[in-house]
Amino acid sequence: MEYCEFIRKFNSKEIKRVNFRLKGYPHYDDCAIFYRRDDVGGGRSVEIIVCRLTRDDYQTVSFYRQFDEEYKLFDMGRKGKFTLKQAWPLVGIIAVG
Fold it and tell me: What is the tens place of the pLDDT at every residue in 53-88?
């Protein structure tokens, strides 16, 4: 799946969850991006997008309403920080839901 297709389907909620790994980076071998509903009280809830990049939740970031394509999710040490789009060639999709 191409990055543009993934983002289109994710933002339109055709895809609500993707589990993936970054090839060659064991630190990022169990990543997930998914929608989650959080209670805010008074019978209300909000839907947020969660990017869980490590098993221990050390690298987790959330977005309200829409995925921020410009946010640099991945810290690859000396190579720098990268957005999902920049890292997409390394993405190995495990599951889509």
Answer: 998 888 999 999 889 999 999 999 899 999 999 999
Confidence of residue 15 (pLDDT cuts 50, 70, 90): very high
Q: What is the DSSP string of 27-66?
A: GGSSEEEEEEEEEEETTEEEEEEEEE-STTSSSEEEEESS
Q: Is residue 89 over pLDDT 90?
A: yes
Q: What is the DSSP letter of 14?
A: S
Dihedrals φ, ψ of 7, to 5°? Answer: -60, -40
Burial class (CB in 10 A: 0-12, 13-18, 19+), 9: middle
Q: What pTM was computed for the model? A: 0.89
Distance (Å, rounded) from C-alpha 4 to C-alpha 10? 10
- Answer yes or no: are the C-beta atoms of 18 and 50 closer than 8 Å: no
> Rounded to the nearest 5 degrees, what angle is found at the Cα of 76, between the Cα atoms of 23 and 91?
25
Q: Which residue has the tokens 């040490």?
A: 77
